[in-house]
Amino acid sequence: MFFKNKEFNQVSEAAVLKVLGEVNDPDLHRDIVSLGFVKNLKINSGKISFDVELTTPACPVKDQLKAQCLEKVKAIPGVTEVDVKMTANVRSTATQGNRVIIPGVRNVIAVASGKGGVGKSTVTLNLAVALSETGARVGLLDADIYGPSIPLMIGTKEKPITEAGRIEPVVKNGIKVMSMGFLVPENQPVIWRGPMIHGALTQFLTQVNWGELDYLLIDMPPGTGDAQLSISQSAPLSGALIVTTPQEVSLLDARKGLRMFQNVKVPILGVVENMAGFVCGHCSEVTPIFRRGGGDKIAQEMGVSLLGSIPLDPRVAEGGDKGTPIVSAHPESEVSKLYKKLAGDVAAQLSVYQAQSVGQFKPLTLEWQ
After folding, report:
1. pLDDT score at 5
2. pTM, two decimal places
3. Domains and CATH numbers, the chain
């Protein structure tokens, strides 16, 4: 260690760490120093630089934390310049039991509904696109063997290729995608019994070359039958997201889907209320076509979080038919903004769960000049 001039003595390691210790992560309820988020601290006279390594690039308070860091460190006497770089290192969720391990995949999130017709696949795809746009590495597994819809919704009929005994997923919108819809003709039904479904899903999990992924989203088939149980009991699920519409008939099945995950010890990240009203394109008035407040009702009843309410927008259906998800086709729309917020909230919920169950964070790394 050496000092280039006397000005350096005005700024100390202790002073920088003290003020950064006043910056708290609002989700984890701890300061960023004790969490080990502060990395590569460099002190060169009055010039201070460091990284803040978050648990996800989709962190919803990333800009807020950066602003606080800049404000706190700039206020230290003797500081002339502050450079804060926001980075992310998505942590892997530990799994237990006989669940399969997917090399390179850090977190697996099931998106389920309990029943069909609630827009679960639409939510899954747009959530995947929103996560990808934050810089996260994302995959999407269409687990609905009987009625795969993801190929249509991403706008490709490309056939996966096989290399060295492993299936290469199709890449679209920056997402790695696998679906039975890529493997069978569009109008040909899949007429399989339970064991064949289980074998296909296991192959999609273990023999697809997913590579390095921060999040693998599984678009679950509707219901609570063989396919759902196969995935819930064998896949290394980090958490589950429940999609419902506001009316009671949808909530009834959503409760069953939620309880299924609870019974197999899969954490519930939260509930998404889809089709939560129609926004008039002329007067902007919101009409609750499917009643109101169903998502909040089931969230409170089951003791989980309501992570988002997504209204109806004709461009969502249009994008699904044309293979252009609304998050990428109309990024400034209100629905796209809600999906981006949902992506941040889902990532935050997962980070909170990881911190509670497995999280011991790495210590601070210092570099002096």
Report:
1. 45
2. 0.89
3. 6-89 (3.30.300.130), 108-357 (3.40.50.300)
